[in-house]
Amino acid sequence: MKPLNIVVLGGTGFVGSHLVPRLHAAGHRITVFSRNREQHRELGVLPRVRVENADVHDAASLTRQLEGADAAINLVGILNERGSDGRGFEKAHVALTETLIAACRKTGVRRLLQMSALRAGDGASHYLRTRFDAETRVRNSGLAWTIFRPSVIFGPGDGLFFRFASLLRLAPVLPLARAEARFAPVYVGDVAEAFTRALAHPYSIGRSYELFGPRVVSLREIVRWTAELSARRCWIIGLPDAFGYLQARIGEWLPGKPISRDNFRSLLVDSVGEKDGLGELGIVSTPMELIVPEMLGADRRQAKLDAFREEHRGA
């Protein structure tokens, strides 16, 4: 296909940091929005990538940046909000999507690729509800849309294995809410490839794709495997839901908000798919076993070094 001018919202985040280089490799020209472009110079070194300072929530600014674009990709999403009433999720997922759709209509940008979440609309969490509400806006937009619904995404720098590896450095005993919640983790490289292929193929227009990996695992298994690969001792305590909810309530007040009540409500819905969206796009899903052991290799080496120092302390 001919190279496209693509505007990416959320392009400096985890998925965006993998997707933008993939789109660039496919020959496209990409504009990425950032609150501080100086913090993302690694993207700016790619010759067909522009990193622009812009407030994506400002309709006039977003409209200006979309002038002359062929397609827009919305990767913006949050897992937690300030407060707990859902207004943060509403702003990040629904209001921003509405602003983007209006800007696309005003500038004549017809193609829109939207990031959502597996099981959006199920359960009582603000996160899943607003993801679905944003999907509804996209489906009713009149644009040439494609929606992606991934399970939890893993890869270098993720908020899954790397997050638990960091926690395990601090706490060998880990009380775990919803320890048996199930996921089908999908590799970030496969997600980036799905977006790239959807842009190239008209048959993806008007379709939603569930993106998930070949293996279903529980949260307990994810933590246990992370501990093994990082050479950390770990005692996992699966909490009954009453205590898990209490942990989430306390977690909302801790630095970094490691878990919230809305996270807990999301965990009540298994992030497992039914229809292989990767396969529909001609992508063979990447097993975790091919990526995660090497990905956590640095943690494993650091753990061995820490053990050596502990053993020879005072010698």
Radius of gyration: 20 Å
Q: Figure out the total of helices.
A: 13
Q: What is the CATH superfamily classification of the domain at 5-152 and 187-211?
A: NAD(P)-binding Rossmann-like Domain
Please write the string of helix (H) and strand (E) elements: EHEHEHEHEHEEHEEEHEEHEHHHHH
* Topology-level CATH name of the domain at 5-152 and 187-211: Rossmann fold
* Count of DSSP strands: 13
Per DSSP, what share of the residues sits in E-state strands of 2 or more residues?
Answer: 15-25%
User: Architecture of the domain at 5-152 and 187-211, according to CATH?
Assistant: 3-Layer(aba) Sandwich
Low-confidence stretches at least 5 residues in length (pLDDT < 50)? none
Q: How far do the termini sit from each other?
A: 65 Å
The helical percent reads 40-55%
Organism: Dokdonella immobilis
InterPro entries: ComplexI_NDUFA9_subunit (IPR051207), NAD(P)-bd_dom (IPR016040), NAD(P)-bd_dom_sf (IPR036291)
Pfam family, one: NAD_binding_10
Protein name: NADH dehydrogenase
How would you describe this structure in keywords?
315 residues, alpha/beta, Rossmann fold, 7-stranded parallel sheet, globular, 13 helices, 13 strands
What does this structure look like?
This protein has 13 helices and 13 strands. The strands form four sheets. It has a seven-stranded parallel sheet with strand order 3-2-1-4-5-6-11, sandwiched between helices. The chain has a two-stranded parallel sheet with strand order 7-10. 43% of the residues lie in helices and 17% in strands. The longest helix is centred in the N-terminal third of the chain and has 21 residues. The chain has a domain of 173 residues: Rossmann fold. By secondary structure, it is α/β, with parallel strands linked by helices. Strand 5, helix 5 and strand 6 form a beta-alpha-beta unit. The chain is globular and about 60 Å long. The protein starts with a strand and ends with a helix. The model has no long low-confidence stretch (mean pLDDT 92).
